[in-house]
Protein backbone atom coordinates (compact mmCIF):
# COMPACT_ATOMS: atom_id res chain seq x y z
CA UNK A 1 0.00 0.00 0.00
CA UNK A 2 1.39 3.39 -1.01
CA UNK A 3 0.96 6.10 1.61
CA UNK A 4 -1.38 8.82 0.33
CA UNK A 5 -0.01 12.37 0.30
CA UNK A 6 -2.23 15.43 0.62
CA UNK A 7 0.01 18.41 -0.11
CA UNK A 8 -0.90 22.10 -0.16
CA UNK A 9 1.20 24.39 -2.34
CA UNK A 10 0.56 27.91 -1.09
CA UNK A 11 2.57 29.47 -3.95
CA UNK A 12 3.16 33.20 -3.21
CA UNK A 13 0.43 33.40 -0.55
CA UNK A 14 0.34 33.37 3.28
CA UNK A 15 2.97 35.44 5.03
CA UNK A 16 4.39 34.36 8.42
CA UNK A 17 1.31 35.39 10.47
CA UNK A 18 -1.16 33.71 8.08
CA UNK A 19 1.02 30.58 7.99
CA UNK A 20 1.01 30.40 11.79
CA UNK A 21 -2.78 30.85 11.90
CA UNK A 22 -3.32 28.14 9.27
CA UNK A 23 -1.08 25.57 10.98
CA UNK A 24 -2.61 26.32 14.39
CA UNK A 25 -6.13 25.89 12.98
CA UNK A 26 -5.18 22.60 11.33
CA UNK A 27 -3.60 21.35 14.57
CA UNK A 28 -6.79 22.26 16.48
CA UNK A 29 -8.85 20.38 13.91
CA UNK A 30 -6.65 17.28 14.28
CA UNK A 31 -7.53 17.30 17.99
CA UNK A 32 -11.25 17.83 17.35
CA UNK A 33 -14.21 15.54 16.72
CA UNK A 34 -15.00 17.31 13.42
CA UNK A 35 -13.24 14.57 11.41
CA UNK A 36 -9.90 15.74 12.74
CA UNK A 37 -9.13 12.88 15.15
CA UNK A 38 -9.92 10.28 12.51
CA UNK A 39 -7.58 12.08 10.12
CA UNK A 40 -4.88 12.36 12.78
CA UNK A 41 -5.14 8.58 13.35
CA UNK A 42 -4.73 7.97 9.61
CA UNK A 43 -1.59 10.12 9.60
CA UNK A 44 -0.17 8.50 12.76
CA UNK A 45 -0.75 5.02 11.41
CA UNK A 46 1.07 5.87 8.17
CA UNK A 47 -1.90 5.75 5.79
CA UNK A 48 -1.80 9.45 4.89
CA UNK A 49 0.84 12.14 4.91
CA UNK A 50 -0.01 15.85 5.15
CA UNK A 51 2.37 18.38 3.63
CA UNK A 52 2.22 22.17 3.45
CA UNK A 53 4.51 24.20 1.19
CA UNK A 54 4.65 27.82 2.38
CA UNK A 55 6.75 30.49 0.69
CA UNK A 56 10.34 30.59 2.05
CA UNK A 57 9.71 33.46 4.47
CA UNK A 58 6.78 31.62 6.13
CA UNK A 59 8.52 28.27 6.62
CA UNK A 60 9.89 29.16 10.08
CA UNK A 61 6.51 30.22 11.44
CA UNK A 62 4.74 27.19 9.94
CA UNK A 63 7.35 24.90 11.54
CA UNK A 64 7.10 26.71 14.89
CA UNK A 65 3.29 26.54 14.94
CA UNK A 66 3.22 22.73 14.79
CA UNK A 67 2.15 21.04 18.02
CA UNK A 68 2.36 17.45 16.74
CA UNK A 69 4.29 15.62 14.07
CA UNK A 70 1.20 15.29 11.84
CA UNK A 71 2.19 18.01 9.35
CA UNK A 72 5.30 17.96 7.18
CA UNK A 73 6.64 21.12 5.57
CA UNK A 74 7.96 21.54 2.03
CA UNK A 75 9.80 24.36 0.26
CA UNK A 76 8.55 25.38 -3.18
CA UNK A 77 11.92 25.57 -4.95
CA UNK A 78 15.67 25.27 -4.29
CA UNK A 79 18.98 26.09 -5.94
CA UNK A 80 21.12 23.08 -6.85
CA UNK A 81 24.35 24.51 -5.34
CA UNK A 82 24.96 24.18 -1.63
CA UNK A 83 26.01 27.83 -1.25
CA UNK A 84 27.77 30.71 -2.95
CA UNK A 85 27.20 33.89 -4.90
CA UNK A 86 23.61 33.32 -6.07
CA UNK A 87 21.68 36.39 -5.00
CA UNK A 88 18.04 35.70 -4.28
CA UNK A 89 18.39 31.91 -4.21
CA UNK A 90 17.92 29.43 -1.33
CA UNK A 91 19.99 26.25 -0.95
CA UNK A 92 18.94 22.74 0.03
CA UNK A 93 20.99 22.72 3.28
CA UNK A 94 19.14 25.92 4.31
CA UNK A 95 15.82 24.32 3.49
CA UNK A 96 16.71 21.25 5.50
CA UNK A 97 17.91 23.31 8.45
CA UNK A 98 14.66 25.31 8.43
CA UNK A 99 12.70 22.11 9.13
CA UNK A 100 11.47 21.01 5.68
CA UNK A 101 11.07 17.34 4.79
CA UNK A 102 10.25 17.96 1.12
CA UNK A 103 10.93 20.41 -1.68
CA UNK A 104 8.81 20.91 -4.81
CA UNK A 105 10.99 20.80 -7.91
CA UNK A 106 9.93 21.77 -11.44
CA UNK A 107 6.47 23.15 -10.71
CA UNK A 108 4.91 24.31 -13.98
CA UNK A 109 5.13 27.93 -12.82
CA UNK A 110 8.89 27.45 -12.38
CA UNK A 111 9.09 25.89 -15.84
CA UNK A 112 6.81 28.27 -17.73
CA UNK A 113 6.94 31.58 -15.82
CA UNK A 114 10.56 31.43 -14.67
CA UNK A 115 12.01 29.49 -17.61
CA UNK A 116 13.49 26.51 -15.73
CA UNK A 117 14.69 23.96 -18.26
CA UNK A 118 14.77 20.16 -18.14
CA UNK A 119 18.57 20.38 -17.68
CA UNK A 120 18.30 22.76 -14.75
CA UNK A 121 15.61 20.57 -13.17
CA UNK A 122 17.71 17.43 -13.52
CA UNK A 123 20.47 19.21 -11.55
CA UNK A 124 17.96 20.26 -8.89
CA UNK A 125 16.54 16.74 -8.60
CA UNK A 126 19.97 15.16 -8.21
CA UNK A 127 21.07 17.81 -5.69
CA UNK A 128 17.87 17.24 -3.69
CA UNK A 129 18.48 13.50 -3.57
CA UNK A 130 21.99 14.19 -2.24
CA UNK A 131 20.57 16.46 0.48
CA UNK A 132 18.47 15.67 3.52
CA UNK A 133 15.26 16.82 1.79
CA UNK A 134 13.03 14.72 -0.47
CA UNK A 135 11.78 15.87 -3.89
CA UNK A 136 8.21 16.27 -5.13
CA UNK A 137 9.05 16.46 -8.83
CA UNK A 138 6.38 18.03 -11.08
CA UNK A 139 5.62 17.23 -14.71
CA UNK A 140 2.73 18.12 -16.99
CA UNK A 141 1.72 19.15 -20.48
CA UNK A 142 0.27 22.46 -21.74
CA UNK A 143 -3.12 22.68 -23.43
CA UNK A 144 -1.50 22.89 -26.89
CA UNK A 145 0.56 19.79 -26.15
CA UNK A 146 -2.53 17.89 -25.01
CA UNK A 147 -4.72 18.93 -27.94
CA UNK A 148 -1.98 18.11 -30.44
CA UNK A 149 -1.76 14.60 -28.96
CA UNK A 150 1.74 14.91 -27.53
CA UNK A 151 0.98 14.54 -23.81
CA UNK A 152 2.81 11.21 -23.53
CA UNK A 153 5.82 12.55 -25.44
CA UNK A 154 6.04 15.58 -23.13
CA UNK A 155 5.73 13.56 -19.89
CA UNK A 156 8.22 11.06 -21.19
CA UNK A 157 10.81 13.65 -22.12
CA UNK A 158 10.40 15.61 -18.85
CA UNK A 159 10.88 12.42 -16.82
CA UNK A 160 13.54 10.77 -18.96
CA UNK A 161 15.69 13.85 -18.69
CA UNK A 162 15.14 14.20 -14.92
CA UNK A 163 15.66 10.59 -13.82
CA UNK A 164 18.22 9.39 -16.36
CA UNK A 165 20.96 8.86 -13.77
CA UNK A 166 18.79 7.61 -10.88
CA UNK A 167 18.57 4.06 -9.55
CA UNK A 168 15.53 1.90 -8.78
CA UNK A 169 15.77 2.14 -4.99
CA UNK A 170 16.01 5.93 -5.13
CA UNK A 171 12.95 6.17 -7.40
CA UNK A 172 10.90 3.79 -5.28
CA UNK A 173 11.79 5.14 -1.87
CA UNK A 174 12.72 8.81 -2.17
CA UNK A 175 10.97 10.43 -5.13
CA UNK A 176 7.37 11.66 -5.35
CA UNK A 177 6.15 12.65 -8.83
CA UNK A 178 3.33 15.18 -9.25
CA UNK A 179 1.38 15.15 -12.50
CA UNK A 180 0.01 18.64 -12.97
CA UNK A 181 -1.43 19.38 -16.42
CA UNK A 182 -0.69 23.08 -17.00
CA UNK A 183 -4.17 23.69 -18.45
CA UNK A 184 -5.80 22.55 -15.19
CA UNK A 185 -3.76 24.71 -12.82
CA UNK A 186 -5.69 27.64 -11.35
CA UNK A 187 -8.21 27.47 -14.19
CA UNK A 188 -11.04 25.61 -12.48
CA UNK A 189 -10.69 22.92 -15.18
CA UNK A 190 -9.83 19.69 -13.41
CA UNK A 191 -8.65 16.81 -15.54
CA UNK A 192 -11.40 14.19 -15.54
CA UNK A 193 -10.76 11.29 -13.18
CA UNK A 194 -9.97 9.05 -16.11
CA UNK A 195 -7.66 11.58 -17.85
CA UNK A 196 -5.77 12.07 -14.59
CA UNK A 197 -5.61 8.29 -14.03
CA UNK A 198 -4.43 7.66 -17.61
CA UNK A 199 -1.57 10.14 -17.25
CA UNK A 200 -0.53 8.77 -13.83
CA UNK A 201 -0.73 5.21 -15.16
CA UNK A 202 1.46 6.28 -18.10
CA UNK A 203 4.03 7.73 -15.65
CA UNK A 204 4.02 4.49 -13.64
CA UNK A 205 4.55 2.50 -16.83
CA UNK A 206 7.53 4.68 -17.73
CA UNK A 207 8.94 4.00 -14.25
CA UNK A 208 8.30 0.27 -14.72
CA UNK A 209 10.11 0.24 -18.08
CA UNK A 210 13.18 1.95 -16.66
CA UNK A 211 13.30 0.83 -13.02
CA UNK A 212 11.28 -2.41 -12.79
CA UNK A 213 8.28 -3.61 -10.85
CA UNK A 214 9.36 -2.95 -7.26
CA UNK A 215 10.28 0.69 -7.88
CA UNK A 216 7.23 1.44 -10.03
CA UNK A 217 4.93 -0.21 -7.47
CA UNK A 218 6.24 1.92 -4.62
CA UNK A 219 6.61 5.21 -6.56
CA UNK A 220 4.05 7.74 -5.34
CA UNK A 221 2.33 9.82 -8.04
CA UNK A 222 0.19 12.85 -7.14
CA UNK A 223 -2.35 14.70 -9.26
CA UNK A 224 -2.60 18.51 -9.15
CA UNK A 225 -4.79 21.04 -10.96
CA UNK A 226 -8.02 22.63 -9.64
CA UNK A 227 -8.46 20.03 -6.89
CA UNK A 228 -11.35 20.87 -4.54
CA UNK A 229 -13.30 18.97 -1.87
CA UNK A 230 -15.91 18.24 -4.57
CA UNK A 231 -13.52 16.28 -6.81
CA UNK A 232 -10.76 15.08 -4.46
CA UNK A 233 -12.41 11.79 -3.41
CA UNK A 234 -12.99 10.62 -6.97
CA UNK A 235 -9.42 11.50 -7.99
CA UNK A 236 -8.01 9.67 -4.96
CA UNK A 237 -10.09 6.60 -5.81
CA UNK A 238 -8.07 6.09 -9.03
CA UNK A 239 -5.61 3.25 -8.71
CA UNK A 240 -2.51 5.15 -9.87
CA UNK A 241 -3.21 8.43 -8.03
CA UNK A 242 -1.50 8.36 -4.65
CA UNK A 243 -2.26 11.86 -3.51
CA UNK A 244 -3.00 15.43 -4.45
CA UNK A 245 -0.99 18.63 -4.86
CA UNK A 246 -3.44 21.43 -4.14
CA UNK A 247 -3.04 25.13 -4.90
CA UNK A 248 -6.03 27.44 -4.38
CA UNK A 249 -8.08 25.12 -2.15
CA UNK A 250 -5.11 24.66 0.21
CA UNK A 251 -5.35 28.33 1.22
CA UNK A 252 -8.67 27.72 2.96
CA UNK A 253 -8.20 25.56 6.03
CA UNK A 254 -11.76 24.13 5.92
CA UNK A 255 -11.46 23.12 2.29
CA UNK A 256 -8.06 21.59 2.98
CA UNK A 257 -9.54 19.63 5.93
CA UNK A 258 -12.34 18.33 3.71
CA UNK A 259 -9.81 17.18 1.13
CA UNK A 260 -7.89 15.36 3.87
CA UNK A 261 -11.12 13.66 4.98
CA UNK A 262 -11.78 12.55 1.40
CA UNK A 263 -8.53 10.55 1.57
CA UNK A 264 -9.63 8.52 4.62
P1 LIG B 1 -4.68 24.85 -8.24
O1 LIG B 1 -5.13 23.79 -7.29
O2 LIG B 1 -4.91 26.25 -7.74
O3 LIG B 1 -5.17 24.61 -9.63
O4 LIG B 1 -3.06 24.72 -8.32
C1 LIG B 1 -2.49 23.48 -8.55
C2 LIG B 1 -1.04 23.58 -8.34
O5 LIG B 1 -0.34 24.20 -9.12
C3 LIG B 1 -0.47 22.94 -7.15
O6 LIG B 1 0.92 22.89 -7.21
Description:
Helix 1 (16-30) runs parallel beside helix 3 and helix 8 (151-163) packs parallel to helix 10 (193-211). By secondary structure, the protein is an alpha/beta fold. It has an 8-stranded parallel beta barrel, surrounded by 8 helices. It has helices at 16-30, 36-44, 56-65, 92-97, 108-112, 118-129, 143-147, 151-163, 168-174, 193-211, 213-218, 229-236, 253-262, and strands spanning 4-9, 48-53, 71-75, 102-105, 134-139, 176-179, 220-224, 243-246. It starts with a strand and ends with a helix. The protein is globular and about 45 Å long. Bound molecules: 1,3-dihydroxyacetonephosphate. Residues 9, 107, 180, 185-186, 224-227, 245-249 line the site of 1,3-dihydroxyacetonephosphate (13P).
CATH class equals Alpha Beta
Stretches where pLDDT falls below 50 for ≥5 residues?
none
Beta content comes to: 15-25%
The biggest beta sheet is recorded as: 8 strands, parallel, barrel
- CATH hierarchy: architecture: Alpha-Beta Barrel
Strand order of the largest sheet: 1-2-3-4-5-6-7-8
State the domain count.
Answer: 1
Tally of alpha and pi helices: 13
Name of the CATH superfamily? Aldolase class I
The dominant shape is: globular
Query: Roughly how many Å is the radius of gyration?
Result: 17 Å
What is the compact description of this entry?
It is built from 13 helices and 8 strands. It is of the alpha/beta class and 264 residues long.
Layout: helices, strands, pairs:
Blueprint: E1 4-9, H1 16-30, H2 36-44, E2 48-53, H3 56-65, E3 71-75, H4 92-97, E4 102-105, H5 108-112, H6 118-129, E5 134-139, H7 143-147, H8 151-163, H9 168-174, E6 176-179, H10 193-211, H11 213-218, E7 220-224, H12 229-236, E8 243-246, H13 253-262
Parallel strand pairs: 1-2, 1-8, 2-3, 3-4, 4-5, 5-6, 6-7, 7-8
Helix pairs in contact: 1-2, 1-3, 6-8, 8-10, 12-13
